[in-house]
Amino acid sequence: MASIAVCPGSFDPITNGHLDIITRGAKVFDEVKVVVLNNSSKQPLFTVEERINLIKEVTKNIPNVKVDSFQGLLIDYAKNVGASAIIRGLRAVSDFEYEMQITSMNRVLNDEIETFFIMTNNQYSFLSSSIVKEVAKYNGKITELVPPPVEKALKAKFIK
Questions:
Q1: pTM over the 0.70 mark
Q2: Which residues are designated catalytic?
Q3: What CA–CA distance (Å, rounded) separates 119 from 28?
Q4: 99 labelled ligand-binding
């Protein structure tokens, strides 16, 4: 039986930190489903479709990565696609506290799906989509923060 993991996020936009977690997860699991969620508490810069297309573009050389989107409970999505695991990236202790709450709730809802935390590489420990958008908005250098297709898409959004 193939091992399937779900790697969820808003990915608005996907960063090199996200890509690091996805790539490392793809080495452990037979299939990694990167799933874009539409977080109602955030105002996204990119549409769900744009985010899916960017993720597909930057992961096209990782054959066991698939990209999808969902609404609702992540644990329900994971069960529906036959996933046995959820992959979450951690940057700092503050991430852990939040992720522990989510993981605990997911275990209450379905204790057959495990959550695996992957510590980000130190070079990305400060990196978030929000920071990238803020720097890009003011035409700052983001070349080392995001893959080239994402940099191009950000410039198209901000440079009119």
A1: yes
A2: 18, 42, 91, 129
A3: 14
A4: yes
* pLDDT tens digit sequence for 13-50: 999 999 999 999 999 999 999 999 877 677 899 999 99
128: three-class secondary structure by DSSP: coil
Question: Whole-angstrom Cα distance, residue 44 to residue 117?
Answer: 25
Cα–Cα distance measured from residue 127 to residue 74, given in angstroms and rounded to the nearest whole number: 23
> How many Å apart are CA 157 and CA 160, to the nearest integer?
7
Contact 95, 17 (CB under 8 A): no
Question: pLDDT of 41-52, one tens digit each?
Answer: 778 999 999 999
For the chain, state the CA radius of gyration.
15
- Range 4-158 has CATH code 3.40.50.620: yes
Distance from chain centroid for Cα 35: 7
Name the strand (E) or helix (H) holding 89: strand 85-90
Report whether 127 belongs to an annotated binding site.
yes
pLDDT > 90 fraction of the chain, expressed in percent and rounded: 83
Q: Is 124 known as a binding-site position?
A: yes
